[in-house]
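User: I want to check something. If I give you two sequences, will you return the structure for each one separately, not as a complex?

Assistant: Yes, each is folded on its own. Here is the first sequence with its structure:
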Amino acid sequence: MKMKKKEIVAMILAGGQGSRLREITDKVAKPAVPFGGKFRIIDFTLSNCSNSEIDTVGILTQYQPLELNSHIGIGSSWDLDRNFGGVKILPPYFDKEGGRFYKGTANAIYENMNYIDAYNPDYVLILSGDHIYKMDYQKMLNVHKEKNADLTISVIEVPWDEASRFGLLSADEEDQIFEFQEKPDEPKSNLASMGIYIFSWPVLRAHLIEDFNSETSTSDFGKDIIPKMVEGDDRVFAYRFSGYWRDVGTVESLWESNMDLLGMDNALNLHDKTWRNYSVNPISPPQYISPFGRVEGSLVNEGCVIEGHVVKSVISTDVHIGRNSVVQNTIVMPNTNIEDDVQIDYAIILSDITVKSGTVVKGTRDKIAVYPSEGGEDRE
């Protein structure tokens, strides 16, 4: 079914299992993991789309999608509840050949070509649903147009000792990319792909069809589509990004990114009224800090009752912390009850649980404890 033309359509890859986040993603997709006390990780990508005036967004789900789907709803929190365009959940589906899961990132887009074709776009923006950042995609699109590019990849410089975790690019003085390495053991560059791509749709469409018919492809952008475009005749350029960006794919990176919010001059700056971060927030009463409670250098959200001592922590919505309990260097996720006389340090406490009186949860700066842990090693 053809619809009125859109210049650009965004496709958010939000089906990741997030196994490196351990128990945090046992029952929820990584993009739906709580962040910053009142957000979900995917809120930042959706807010970027809204702030960039991109109003047609497909969200490709797969692993544990129930909570993510419920959170997104019809997209009204991000002004994406539109009659024409708006947000659309795109799970794997059954057709005349039967049901099948997405085989890879490129295959996920291939399986939804009909959705994209319906808007007949000039460009397709491919995004990840599990990164924390603020970015104006229109600025990237303008560069894509100026370079007459077939593909533009947003890149950021990373420390050399972390470079092997990323897809790495080498570019000339005009920022045209001439080499791409996917998570190499021996990096030649520290210019890392952020997993943010703008393709000219006719070019990408042709590559997706060719890739689908290949018997050797893994149907992945980083392993198949992008290297082929770089090595071929396509015009592939880098878009250099210098703002805040974090891939929160591990327990430690999730913890660090939350802790970044506690600095007075934090680069993400949730108080920036020119670039708001939107979310679905429950209706909860104001936070209450009792005469016995004490809070230092922390974020404490609505619905919280603090009777203990909170230091350098992110306390999510509707959390209770009992008397004589000390919570420091910790993320407490929503709807959690921490009883009296609990000691917690360098940890992530999961949602919807009770931490019993007398419990001790101790991690370290290099190994953040997750509670409750399947193995129980976080409890002393």
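And separately, the second sequence with its own structure:
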Amino acid sequence: MQVKIGDIVARKSYKCDVLFRVIDLKQTEDGKWAAILYGEEVRLIADALCDDLAVIGDRERNERKVHEKEMLEQSLYLLKQDYRLLQEKREYGATASYSHNEEFFHLPGKVLHLDGDPLYLQKCLTLYERVGVPVFGVHVKETEMQDVVADLIEEYRPNILVITGHDAYSKHKGAINDLNAYRHSKHFVQTVRNARKAVPHLDQLVIFAGACQSHFESLIRAGANFASSPSRVNIHALDPVYIVAKISFTPFMERINVWDVLRNTLTREKGLGGIETKGVLRTGMPYHRHDESNS
């Protein structure tokens, strides 16, 4: 058996379209070996017979990463452009359009990010840091999130909650509207419900929930402001960060246009959706830089 835990592989039967990380191996009843797979760049969990897997070498992985990096940098550029426009608008509004020399301070929304994948969590934390979003990251298995979310909300008091990890829809388990046909959607749904018991108001705690192919409608009905995946497609590992950053940097007196949030993500409206929501950022003044040498 050539495939090992930790290998980066692709499924031959799917024309090697998505890269996966092998996280476990198991023997089937007929004696064959199967692998449990986590998407390397998309939040998808899958399983496949080892005979159907091709181990991807460093050269091909690097070629794919170049294209991936170009897409991420483009999204990041658009996000930063949006932030600059929002900042100019906030400062103009805060001064009632009068010119003066006072400086402002901004309090972006704090994020609590629960992630079922520790590697994805670290990727997300790195991107949060690049765009300046204050965040607390916690690795929690998808099946355990519902049990700890209320205590974590009480501990960190976030403005925005992210509930994500891996998910997948399996046709052989049921119809597309059957929550039991999804790997982790029911766990995400219950986690959202428990979070809403702690903070019922949609604008006091903004919630993003879901992963690849998640049951979008159930997550929204449970109380999420934004969720995946309306068309049951795969979402990128970092898509939640782009949505959260837009919310974090939008003033609390403004409502967020859903399309304005989705347009900078990698999967857009097929993979992500939501409802009208207020921003969470607050602007204050004056901001004084204290001379540390005199303190």
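Because they were folded independently, the notes below concern the second chain alone. The helical segments are 58-94, 118-131, 145-156, 185-198, 216-222, 239-248, 258-262, 268-271. The radius of gyration is 21 Å.
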